[in-house]
UniProtKB/TrEMBL annotation:
This is Mariner Mos1 transposase. GO terms for molecular function: DNA topoisomerase binding; double-stranded DNA binding; histone H3K36 methyltransferase activity; histone H3K4 methyltransferase activity; single-stranded DNA binding; single-stranded DNA endodeoxyribonuclease activity. One of its GO terms (cellular component) is nucleus. It comes from Acromyrmex echinatior (Panamanian leafcutter ant). Residues 8-55 form the Mos1 transposase HTH domain. GO terms for biological process: DNA double-strand break processing; DNA integration; double-strand break repair via nonhomologous end joining; mitotic DNA integrity checkpoint signaling; replication fork processing.
Length: 102
């Protein structure tokens, strides 16, 4: 039998459900981990804070800049995959840490 793989929206909607049941963020996280496993990366505490502030939109907000850097990084790596993170960071005008997270 195949297991259900939850997406971000599903998990966030479950967090709203637990929030409405007056569960704590820690309890909600524990229940999600119990149901879906340790690999769960949702940030229950951050979402509960948003809910407390009246923000119930579960979609990711668009971010500026990041996709462009990622696309440029991908293009540079396609040209020469032997470049170091430091070289890539200098070329893109980004930090080495930002490159390593891509």
């Amino acid at each position: 039998m195949a297991s259900f793989e939850p997406n971000k929206r599903h998990l966030r909607e479950l967090l709203i459900y637990f929030f409405n049941l007056k569960k704590s963020a820690a309890e909600a996280h524990r229940l999600l981990v119990e149901a879906y496993g340790e690999a769960l990366s949702e940030r229950s505490y951050e979402w509960f804070q948003k809910f407390k502030n009246g923000e119930f939109d579960v979609e990711d907000k668009e971010r500026s800049g990041r996709p462009k850097v990622y696309a440029e990084l991908e293009a540079l790596l396609n040209e020469d995959s032997c470049q170091t993170q430091k070289e890539l960071a200098l070329t893109l005008g980004a930090t080495q840490q930002a490159i390593s997270h891509q």
